[in-house]
Amino acid sequence: MITVVGSINMDLVVQTDDFPQQGETILGQSFTTVPGGKGANQAVAAARLGGNVQMIASVGKDSFGKELRDNLQANSVNCDGVLENNAVASGIANILLSGGDNRIIVVPGANYELTPSYIEEMKKIIQKSQLVIIQQEIPIPTIMYTLKLCAKLGIPVLLNPAPAGGFQKEFLAYTTFLTPNETECEHIFGVNMEAALERYPNQLIVTLGSEGARFFDGEKHVIVEGFKTNVVDTTGAGDTFNGALAYAIVEGFDLKEAVKFANAAGSLSVEKFGAQGGMPTRAEVEQRLRGES
Ligand code: RIB
């Protein structure tokens, strides 16, 4: 079982020909609300592949909260650990989409009500997990607490340090896999990517967008190439990679094969609209791996 400790947001997506300049008003093409949040996205990605997934998170007791929880359940994610908060609204992400590129502002809302004491209450779920996934859209003390709890219980953790602000160097001691993108890697380590990778063999995996991903295996740099794809919307591609990587690791793939599987899943996810819209099934990933799609 995979447990995701993370955020759930409603994505408020505006599609536009151009991004507005500072102080400028422009007309957009469409407005859509779709389920998102890095935690929920990673949970759905792993579940759609066939993983047994539990979510520990917090939503508001409002219409978005209900819709977001229903969406997780419809995607076979167990929501017993999803708290409903009376006092704070559900998290949202304001997303501007233009030409396959995006700009996102997250208002965490109820996601920031996920406290260390609630994680302690959820210990019974965590201790049954084969792997825990965390991202950084929840309070930093809660991340730290979860990491230490997992270390105490001997549960491996995949930490996706996104957004990278707030990352604590101390996290590394409790993290089995850390999966920043190139920008996040530079922000966290302040050295060039190769030097960072060499410091954390088989632990640090850097995602490179359409180029794939890479890690250092202790002897050499392993570059796992990406797949050719038709980009419609890149929102959630990193989340699909992380959910798929977690799934493949739990399925027993070695690290290189797991990264390749995750690259294929990520490449499929960008072909449809919405963070979760293009997340593939395992059969679809295998088809891409065979070069049939
Ligand atoms: O990674 C994409 C996600 O980031 C979006 O779904 C949005 O909710 C933000 O959390």
TrEMBL record:
<feature type="active site" description="Proton acceptor">
    <location>
        <position position="239"/>
    </location>
</feature>
<feature type="domain" description="Carbohydrate kinase PfkB">
    <location>
        <begin position="2"/>
        <end position="281"/>
    </location>
</feature>
<comment type="similarity">
    <text>Belongs to the carbohydrate kinase pfkB family.</text>
</comment>
<keyword id="KW-0119">Carbohydrate metabolism</keyword>
<feature type="binding site">
    <location>
        <begin position="37"/>
        <end position="41"/>
    </location>
    <ligand>
        <name>substrate</name>
    </ligand>
</feature>
<dbReference type="InterPro" id="IPR002139">
    <property type="entry name" value="Ribo/fructo_kinase"/>
</dbReference>
<dbReference type="Pfam" id="PF00294">
    <property type="entry name" value="PfkB"/>
</dbReference>
<dbReference type="InterPro" id="IPR002173">
    <property type="entry name" value="Carboh/pur_kinase_PfkB_CS"/>
</dbReference>
<feature type="binding site">
    <location>
        <position position="263"/>
    </location>
    <ligand>
        <name>ATP</name>
    </ligand>
</feature>
<feature type="binding site">
    <location>
        <begin position="207"/>
        <end position="212"/>
    </location>
    <ligand>
        <name>ATP</name>
    </ligand>
</feature>
<feature type="binding site">
    <location>
        <position position="233"/>
    </location>
    <ligand>
        <name>K(+)</name>
    </ligand>
</feature>
<feature type="binding site">
    <location>
        <position position="137"/>
    </location>
    <ligand>
        <name>substrate</name>
    </ligand>
</feature>
<keyword id="KW-0460">Magnesium</keyword>
<keyword id="KW-0418">Kinase</keyword>
<feature type="binding site">
    <location>
        <position position="239"/>
    </location>
    <ligand>
        <name>substrate</name>
    </ligand>
</feature>
<dbReference type="InterPro" id="IPR011611">
    <property type="entry name" value="PfkB_dom"/>
</dbReference>
<keyword id="KW-0067">ATP-binding</keyword>
<comment type="subunit">
    <text>Homodimer.</text>
</comment>
<feature type="binding site">
    <location>
        <position position="269"/>
    </location>
    <ligand>
        <name>K(+)</name>
    </ligand>
</feature>
<feature type="binding site">
    <location>
        <position position="235"/>
    </location>
    <ligand>
        <name>K(+)</name>
    </ligand>
</feature>
<feature type="binding site">
    <location>
        <position position="274"/>
    </location>
    <ligand>
        <name>K(+)</name>
    </ligand>
</feature>
<comment type="pathway">
    <text>Carbohydrate metabolism; D-ribose degradation; D-ribose 5-phosphate from beta-D-ribopyranose: step 2/2.</text>
</comment>
<feature type="binding site">
    <location>
        <begin position="238"/>
        <end position="239"/>
    </location>
    <ligand>
        <name>ATP</name>
    </ligand>
</feature>
<dbReference type="InterPro" id="IPR011877">
    <property type="entry name" value="Ribokinase"/>
</dbReference>
<keyword id="KW-0963">Cytoplasm</keyword>
<keyword id="KW-0547">Nucleotide-binding</keyword>
<feature type="binding site">
    <location>
        <begin position="9"/>
        <end position="11"/>
    </location>
    <ligand>
        <name>substrate</name>
    </ligand>
</feature>
<keyword id="KW-0630">Potassium</keyword>
<keyword id="KW-0808">Transferase</keyword>
<feature type="binding site">
    <location>
        <position position="272"/>
    </location>
    <ligand>
        <name>K(+)</name>
    </ligand>
</feature>
<comment type="similarity">
    <text>Belongs to the carbohydrate kinase PfkB family. Ribokinase subfamily.</text>
</comment>
<dbReference type="InterPro" id="IPR029056">
    <property type="entry name" value="Ribokinase-like"/>
</dbReference>
<dbReference type="GO" id="GO:0004747">
    <property type="term" value="F:ribokinase activity"/>
</dbReference>
<comment type="function">
    <text>Catalyzes the phosphorylation of ribose at O-5 in a reaction requiring ATP and magnesium. The resulting D-ribose-5-phosphate can then be used either for sythesis of nucleotides, histidine, and tryptophan, or as a component of the pentose phosphate pathway.</text>
</comment>
<feature type="binding site">
    <location>
        <position position="181"/>
    </location>
    <ligand>
        <name>ATP</name>
    </ligand>
</feature>
<protein>
    <recommendedName>
        <fullName>Ribokinase</fullName>
        <ecNumber>2.7.1.15</ecNumber>
    </recommendedName>
</protein>
<keyword id="KW-0479">Metal-binding</keyword>
